[in-house]
Description:
Elements: H1 3-23, H2 28-40, H3 42-47, H4 51-74, H5 79-103, H6 105-135, H7 157-169, H8 174-205
Helix pairs in contact: 1-4, 2-4, 2-5, 4-5, 4-7, 5-6, 6-8, 7-8
GO molecular function: phosphotransferase activity, for other substituted phosphate groups
Family: Belongs to the CDP-alcohol phosphatidyltransferase class-I family.
Transmembrane segments: 33-60, 81-103, 115-136, 148-170, 176-195
Amino acid sequence: MLDRLTLRLVRPPLLRMARYTVRVGVTADHVTLLGFAIGMLALPALATGHFTAALLAIGLNRILDGLDGAVARLTQATERGAYLDVVLDFIFYSAVIFGFALADPGRNALPAAGLIFAFVGTGSSFLAFAVFAERFALHSMRYPNKGFYYLTGIAEGTETIGFFVLMCLLPNAFPTLAWVFFGLCVLTTLSRVVGGAHTLKTLTKAPH
Length: 208
């Protein structure tokens, strides 16, 4: 829901960083893989109760996640890069929640399981529509620079990271935050399923 605003704010500094990155010969895929590796450090940090370290890993992951796209646009965007970007993002998101479950299984395991379940809904509805958008040659007007059709929703990247930050700053409130975000993810999934199904029904009835 807030991704469009966030992207406008971060695009200028990311572009400056991307220009330097290209000059030193680092590719977009290198940035993607480095960001994923750093982000996955949040899992052991969370599991051992080092929430500040986890927050740092999450923040660096998100910066590099934005940087890889900026580098790709300055050089050459590829399907391989877009594929790696989205797959590794979903693995990272689930890893963070799993880390909180490991930190305190008694309090956090059930809300963590619920939230990962909700992530399956948001992720599958997002990616499944992207497949058919490619088939019908649809292009997202809100996110024209994305490597695939970016289906919007209430819970997008900005909201996800916002909740991750709150969870790291307020780890004792993880169960409450997880269930609140679970509700937003469920609403996002429902809106995507209904909206996506309606759009595809319209497209299949339209003359080609």
